[in-house]
Amino acid sequence: RSWPLHHALEKVSEEGHGVVVLLNSAEDSYNLEDRIHEFFDREQASSAKGGSGVYFTVGTGSQILRDIGVGKMRLLSPPVKFSAISGFDLEVVEYVPYSQD
Q1: Greatest alpha-carbon span in the chain
Q2: Which residues share a beta bridge with 92?
């Protein structure tokens, strides 16, 4: 489950520093994590598909993070593998899954 925006902002505030990047985001029940998993499920079923908005979004977000000086990061997300971010010299050192507790 993805972090609701207000909880993500609270978590970053508690940590004392951090970055929140929103791209193509509409906070509703159809969250980014669901879209990512749907994309990879479709790709495994049919490898003949062309480019994807998910890759464009990840690339755009990665470029923004590099432009503002992010390198290593703790990602407020369940583990999701995007090997392409290493091309931007980004490294996820920890995934922090959302918990309602």
Answers
A1: 45
A2: 73
Residue indicated by tokens 């996820």: 92
User: What are the tens digits of pLDDT across the range 27-76?
Assistant: 554 565 666 566 566 555 544 444 567 777 888 899 999 999 999 999 99
Predicted structure pTM score: 0.66
Residue 44 contacts by C-beta under 8 Å, 6 or more apart in sequence?
none
Domain boundaries, the chain: 5-95
What CA–CA distance (Å, rounded) separates 56 from 64? 12
CA 42 to mean position of chain CA atoms: 19
Query: DSSP state, 85?
Result: G
CA nearest 18: which of 81, 59, 89, 73? 73
Query: Do 98 and 9 contact (CB within 8 A), yes or no?
Result: no
